[in-house]
Amino acid sequence: QVQLVESGGGLVQPGGSLRLSCVASGSIVSINAMGWYRQTPGKQRDLVAVITSDDTTTYANSVKGRFTISRDNAKNTVHLQMDSLKPEDTAVYYCSISTNYGPYWGQGTQVTVSS
């Protein structure tokens, strides 16, 4: 079994910052990519950012220059630093990892950007 636990979500004013973290534990042999996705009610889950095992990063156009993804391989942890937050960033954010045995997902953490 693999568990992903996210933390760091909450309410923040426009222009503010939040840092999301996700720790993966359990029967993990190796992690290929680690990423963050987000979803709003009635819409599909979209990629926010992903980082591969060689630290190659990919970002959604809407977050480029504002969000930064990083990982700590020794701790099976991935972070998402979110700066200059906008109301349209409001969503449930999900952590995901890609392994040789398939993808795994966290339970999600709510991020609300509002004044």
Which structural category do the helix and sheet elements fall into? mainly beta
Total beta-strand segments = 11
Distance between the termini: 40 Å
Whole-number average pLDDT?
Answer: 96
Work out the strand percent. over 45%
Radius of gyration: 13 Å
Largest sheet: 7 strands, mixed
State the shape.
globular
Count, helices:
0
Keywords summarizing the entry:
seven-stranded mixed beta sheet; 11 strands; four-stranded antiparallel beta sheet; 57% strand; 115 residues; mainly beta
Description:
It contains no helices and eleven strands. It is globular and about 45 Å long. Strands 2, 4, 5, 6, 9, 10 and 11 form a seven-stranded mixed sheet that branches. The model has no long low-confidence stretch (mean pLDDT 96). It is 0% helix and 57% strand. Strand 7 (67-72) and strand 8 (77-82) form a beta hairpin.
Summarize the structure.
The chain has strands at residues 2-7, 10-12, 18-26, 31-39, 46-51, 57-59, 67-72, 77-82, 91-99, 102-105, 109-113. With 115 residues, it is mostly beta strands. A hairpin with a 6-residue loop joins strand 4 and strand 5 (46-51).
